């Protein structure tokens, strides 16, 4: 599973668990609604750690708690070659 897929699953899970919308989370996290939406849609393949930290703040959890789930057990980063081919396109 790609890291973007795991992050999407984790955000979705935490939104449901905390009965939050993306908009409410973005307000609580102090970041743009589009950052969270793009993470959820997979538009952002590798979100910054800063964005993840803000999302954690919005959920009122620590960073380690965000990643403490089986979703991240066997994740893969986007391949560098794939990154380069997106720059060329």
In short:
The protein contains 6 helices and no strands. With 89 residues, the chain is mainly alpha-helical.
Features:
mainly alpha; 6 helices; 0% strand; 89 residues
Can you give the helix content as a percent range?
Answer: 55-70%
Provide the low-confidence segments as ranges.
none
Average pLDDT figure = 85
Distance between the first and last residues' Cα: 24 Å
The total of helices stands at 6
* Beta-strand content estimate: under 5%
Output the helix-strand order: HHHHHH
Got a strand count? Answer: 0
Shape: globular
Largest sheet: none
- Structural class call reads mainly alpha
Q: Whole-number radius of gyration?
A: 13 Å
Outline the structure in words:
- The protein is mainly α and 89 residues long.
- It is built from 6 helices and no strands.
- The protein has helices at residues 3-17, 22-29, 33-41, 49-59, 63-67, 80-88.
- The longest helix is centred in the N-terminal third of the chain and has 15 residues, at 3-17.
- The model has no long low-confidence stretch (mean pLDDT 85).
What's the topology here?
Layout: H1 3-17, H2 22-29, H3 33-41, H4 49-59, H5 63-67, H6 80-88
């Amino acid at each position: 599973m790609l890291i973007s897929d795991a992050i999407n699953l984790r955000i979705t899970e935490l939104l449901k668990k905390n009965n939050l919308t993306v908009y409410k989370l973005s307000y609580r996290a102090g970041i743009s609604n589009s950052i969270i939406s793009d993470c959820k849609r997979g538009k952002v393949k590798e979100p910054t750690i800063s964005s993840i930290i803000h999302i954690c703040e919005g959920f009122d959890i620590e960073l380690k708690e965000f990643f403490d789930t089986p979703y991240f057990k066997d994740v893969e980063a986007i391949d560098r070659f794939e990154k380069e081919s997106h720059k060329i396109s």
